[in-house]
Design goal:
Elements (H helix, E strand, L loop, with lengths): L1 E6 L8 E9 L5 E5 L12 E5 L2 E5 L14 E5 L5 E3 L18
Length: 103
Amino acid sequence: MLIAGEHEDGNDPEFCIYNDVIVINPDGQIEIYGYPPEVFPPTDFHTATRVGEWIYIIGSLGYQGTQPDEVSVYRLSLLDFHIEKCPTAGDVPPQMCQHSAKL
């Protein structure tokens, strides 16, 4: 499974940050799930951690000038591949990218 990410270098005219999920099944069949940016914005330099039937997607660098002021947290359902933004509480950490996650 591939969750979002980027293509090429930021200075390349073909540079793109994706907001999709690509599933490569054991039989080689490929499924591509695309999401509107208001549901799941273009995301790169994030972590994706499986917890039960969900994958939590934390952090993002994003396009220059569009970075969020706080850490973005989404979760992807492994049952039907819908993505939802997760509400968070407590002290708001700054934007997070190029980090690691361990469960």
